[in-house]
Sequence to fold (650 residues):
Amino acid sequence: MHLPIILTGDRTTGPLHLGHYVGSLQARVRLQHTHDQYLLLADTQALTDNMGTPQKVSDNVLEVTFDYLAAGIDPRKSTIFVQSQIPELAELSMLLLNLVSVSRLERNPTIKAEIALRGFERDIPAGFLVYPVAQAADITAFKATLVPVGDDQLPMIEQTNELVRKFNTLVNKEVLVECKALLSQVTRLPGIDGNAIALGASPDEIKKAVKQMYTDCNHLRIDDPGEIDGNVVFSMLDAFEQDRVMLAELKAKYRRGGLGDGVLKRRLEDHLQELLAPIRERRQLFAADRQEVLAILKQGTDRARETAARTVGEVKRALGLNYFE
Amino acid sequence: MHLPIILTGDRTTGPLHLGHYVGSLQARVRLQHTHDQYLLLADTQALTDNMGTPQKVSDNVLEVTFDYLAAGIDPRKSTIFVQSQIPELAELSMLLLNLVSVSRLERNPTIKAEIALRGFERDIPAGFLVYPVAQAADITAFKATLVPVGDDQLPMIEQTNELVRKFNTLVNKEVLVECKALLSQVTRLPGIDGNAIALGASPDEIKKAVKQMYTDCNHLRIDDPGEIDGNVVFSMLDAFEQDRVMLAELKAKYRRGGLGDGVLKRRLEDHLQELLAPIRERRQLFAADRQEVLAILKQGTDRARETAARTVGEVKRALGLNYFE
Fold:
């Protein structure tokens, strides 16, 4: 009866693209049949480093939902919900903040890397420094035991479990639940070239994106031997070519010389057009019915809020913050 | 019709004492007639440096409420509410955290002093570092324009107004309201001797506390000249002796010599017994009817939550986080 609980989701800073599809969406469509899957539209988390452009964040809540539904997420099987609409997540975040030191947060390798990446230095927004705690609140509020992550995000899981143990020890009760990383086995698409193809891209946009893909700059004539490593088109074929025998042959021929980029790109484009056509079609249908999608989101958010409120109720009760019960 | 809005309150770490009475409670009893006064029982703020002893914090919510009511706070005039029961305050805190940098928080003089005081050093809990932001959320959620503070807390007001300006500039709308410090003019009671007399202290406890009060350690015999400065009994008389002429005479006589500590202490004790007797009596009545007091708290909290929810609704709307409206 009780399926294992998964918490995953996306920051709502833009529509999803092919990289999301092979990196997470495909797996989620599978997992929703065997797991109790919560899909978080992380708008408040996105604000921690996009506070200057709040509309970008809020506008993309619906865009990402279109992508979810178009890719095959079934709202009867997965709970799609909006982070900002669940005040209990903020409550839990504020309480968990008391169980972690500033220096511990500053040592978080993911945060350190991201601070460097964004050039925040000492001007890091406080919301950004503490977002691993907010993430721990998201995970623990749903008592998720599985969190699909890349290996660069393992410190987040560790931070979450530290907080779980600290809280449970404090109240001397197993209120929160530890989680495990579900490491993704799928290929990461290379660079931004491949990733930049949105799930809702038009046939022309797909064609153009493939045309611009980097191959091997020394492969000037068809007869020249070509390089596979760092060749974006081959990396994309690794992800999308079902016929693995054919792919091995193509690679061998390319290395020897005698195989033109055009042939490869046409093959890749065919696969992408075929993959994205039905997704685009479904996406257009959902995008044309915003009210229906909002209703789906509302329903998921209500359901998620009930769960989160139950957990945060237990947390507050364990701390004695339940005066009116 | 619209009275100016005041936000004030207490961290719930213990029952209130004489120091609170002359430092703030007396003024609140007056202000409730001319102001729309919100009285915050700051249990979640108290947890930022008392997370190890949550029961101390939650137990004292009712204790402080007894003190409020016994001192003359009228729940029909003042809105007494519990911070942890208003999730919208946590929501607003989390949003405002994106508008302040970690280094700005670390520069806050009050926080710096308190970090040193508590010996936190680098192990400062994240919740403690960010509590000025939570305080800004408390103030702005009620659109309070007046916040009674000591001058050591002026940086808190400044931090709040910085956040107000940043937020309003960001959304290009006057959503939040700046506040002003209402500097208290009353005497601060000296040391812990005087402060340690709880509002609910028994006659014996009052007697004992006065007996133990420090006067002038060189004032050995009645005829010796005595020192007024640093003399706790005189500082207490400064706060509680209504007859200012008599007080001046007592001081003069004490300085010359010929006035014993016992006479002074009896006089002070009489004043304190007289002041605290009706407070203690009312406090006992309230403490005997916890259900009634809880109902008062619940009513105040519901009322406060409505106001906070309205403001946080405006905040979220201005950021575009109102998908389901």
User: Anything to note?
Assistant: The domain at 5-188+290-319 of chain B is CATH 3.40.50.620 (Rossmann fold). The radius of gyration of chain B is 22 Å.
